[in-house]
Amino acid sequence: MEYFYEIEMEVRDYECDLQGIVNNSVYQNYLEHARHQFLDKYGLNFAQLHNDGIDGVVTRIEIDYKDSLRPGDRFVVRLNMTKKGNVRFVFNQAIFRKSDDKLMIQAKVFGVLTQNRRPIAPTVFDETLKAHGLVMQQEK
Amino acid sequence: MEYFYEIEMEVRDYECDLQGIVNNSVYQNYLEHARHQFLDKYGLNFAQLHNDGIDGVVTRIEIDYKDSLRPGDRFVVRLNMTKKGNVRFVFNQAIFRKSDDKLMIQAKVFGVLTQNRRPIAPTVFDETLKAHGLVMQQEK
Amino acid sequence: MEYFYEIEMEVRDYECDLQGIVNNSVYQNYLEHARHQFLDKYGLNFAQLHNDGIDGVVTRIEIDYKDSLRPGDRFVVRLNMTKKGNVRFVFNQAIFRKSDDKLMIQAKVFGVLTQNRRPIAPTVFDETLKAHGLVMQQEK
Amino acid sequence: MEYFYEIEMEVRDYECDLQGIVNNSVYQNYLEHARHQFLDKYGLNFAQLHNDGIDGVVTRIEIDYKDSLRPGDRFVVRLNMTKKGNVRFVFNQAIFRKSDDKLMIQAKVFGVLTQNRRPIAPTVFDETLKAHGLVMQQEK
Hints:
4 copies of one chain form a homotetramer.
Chain A: E1 5-10, H1 26-41, H2 46-51, E2 54-65, E3 74-84, E4 88-97, E5 103-115, E6 118-120, H3 123-131, E7 137-139
Parallel strand pairs in A: 3-7
Antiparallel strand pairs in A: 1-3, 2-5, 3-4, 4-5, 5-6
């Protein structure tokens, strides 16, 4: 899979739980931070969209846990974006351990944009990314 | 769906984010807490299983976000357990807002038990629950 | 010390860290939740005060860590409120393990109310609590 | 104040609460991460000390909240270490907003080392740091 963006981060001890590994819920924090940083980079800030009357909302998340990050691990979150049907967009995200590029987490995060509480086509994403040479493929 | 267990909880303000709603990752905390409380009730504590050389691990999570909990909301997490194939077990979980019993979150959490790092059939779950009149159905 | 309020809670596994005990920062969550529940009980909700142009802000926190809560522990957070000088109010808070009433955490949380960004006397706290028979003593 | 170490970090949106600012408890996470990174740098890893039978424990924390970090803010956590009495060590920590070097948080974190559950002098810190030209002053 070709990714649009990557960000490198490091496990912080307080993110680890009793089992000595990063708690399952913390990966959602990593994934969210990567999405927000990616969107910010292209001026697609949710706060800004909100001021234009457009709201983004996550409707579904699927996470496959392949292996666990541990204290001190550095890792890379990679992502791209696709379209599914007319209104849904999808973030395809993966987390790789830095030391050996091993896949830790594979995730799909589904969302929609709404205006006046109705779903709208994610044209603003489509066009902004296209202007930077990034193509949101249509998923089957 | 028939549930095995439910636990009532309340949103804490620090669990809410910028948007004034519970952050998406926090629902995983609620879901995990409900699973652990349920298993504890039947003596299926992960710490105890670990001492018997058996480890439980989450392999996949699917969450549908239907609506958002807000500060002050009370809610109920309900769950049951099914089997999928020979080794996987599944927690079917849902979060309902207390005030109107509206569905907020629908989730499936897949896991396996391992012994000596190899997956084993979840017989310990099956038998313990059966002894309490709870049947883990086989999913297709 | 005489307390105005107490709330009972339970340690959740995800709140524990590598060392198998509740992470130091999580006690601040417990303390904040207890303060908000206490204020809510008397209609002193921060959101509501905000609509009246009054904002509450924590200026300092002191926490003595006496002992550690562990997975499964139930505990009680107790609190009262005092005044310090003309504008500061203080929450005196303590966390006791339920099983043996042992003191785990002793804390002082200092705050001020502001209106138009200037500190004001916490009269709204003083009068509301007095109406319920609770007296905010003056600290030396 | 002269600092021994600094680390630069960035606010993540999920760390912010209803008020649109970093939640008070999150600063403890930042402070803890900075301490662990600093100690790691000099081989003073708590996990490693633990294997030598020495445990570090935080006994008290004092935090003055001067101003609030917001989404997107970059910041620097600085720290040094001092001694207080015979057994206590103190981390003096401060958080500065990167854009204008404005002080956000001033904190003192007190700790002790224990061996066989008894407090011991923090000689291992003292000597290791001295070997790198860093002097733990004695606080009055």
